[in-house]
Design brief:
The chain is mainly alpha-helical. The protein folds into two domains: 176 residues, Growth Hormone, Chain: A, CATH 1.20.1250; 192 residues, MFS general substrate transporter like domains (Growth Hormone, Chain: A, Up-down Bundle), CATH 1.20.1250.20. It is built from 17 helices and no strands. α11 runs antiparallel to α17. The C terminus is likely disordered.
Amino acid sequence: MPVLLAALGALLVSLDSAINIALPAMAEAFGVAPAAIRWVIICYVLTYALTAFAAGVLADRLGPAPVFVTGLWFSAAVFTAYAAAHSYAAVLLLRVLQGLGVGLIYGTAPALVTLSLPREQHGRGLGLMSLGLGVGLATAPALGGALLAAFGWPAVFVFRAPLMLAVAVLAQLRLPHVTSGAPAPRRLGPDELLRLPVLQSALLAFLSNYAQFSVWLLVPFFLVGSLRLPPTVGGLLFTLTPLGNALAAPLGGIATDRIGPRWPLVGGLVVEAAGLLSIAWMTDVSPLTRVGLGLALVGVGVGLFQVPNLAQMMAAFPGARQGVAGGLGFLSRTLGSAVGVQVTAALFDARLARDGFLAAFHVAFLGAGTVCALGVLLALWPAGRRAAV
């Protein structure tokens, strides 16, 4: 039950990608410029990144279950409140509050998995959790579009309130109090975080997410603009990335349990880099099969990578620090996404005015592919021994 609930929590959190399609409608409703609407993303992402790590620290003292359940209840209340959000300031405040609730869920879900399973099944458990994450990312864009067309922008938030409430009730009734059985840990010190296995896992998560977010930022413009695809066709092609992620994550977990995290992790980064570099050479006459293959490769690579990477991070800490390990893993991913979006956008903008869209697109994806290739080299570097349980 803890693994299933962790997967359900990850699924509901990842449904936030449903809001992307609603951002133009929100900008119009509140009379804000398209550039200013980015704060809807920033307020949420930065809050949950920091909260996830703090939640992990708290989970190591209280156990992950009560922190996780609190996040579910709090998130259900925040999603309900979106129905009464009638100003841009109110939406931004709710996004900060939503980030707090999501951080409590994200920061404790990995610990729920690893503390409820024997070590030799950690990969499968984390793979199931990542499957929930991928399913949410794959289904949310289409769901968001349908809700926006039928009910308006508030619906892309409010629809999750009853879903979150149902999972909160289930978790309250069925989630056991899982712990490592070890004494309460001492105060977290820099010496525990600044170890080579921890830094390597965190940096790899940062680099992979940095690279893959070029797809989320620029590929929609390539599909609809350069290839002139109808939004429905472009949306189906774009879904290949999160779908590949969802399908590959359980395989990455199984491989991790059988041969350890290192080689599944390296393989995932190689596939991700191959996908990004193939996208870098696409043009406005590239066949759709080639475009779809490139997008699918990125998704499959990320799916294969994330589970062994998270398993490696969890194994770098003892049982009494599994909350910290999970929170640090999600913090690293989120910081990579945030920095990747900013740097990729800067590279793209620097070439756009002078050389046009396709040239700027190529430079941005060459940069992303190079970052991912650097991740491959880092992953091949031996990181030392894992922590004792």
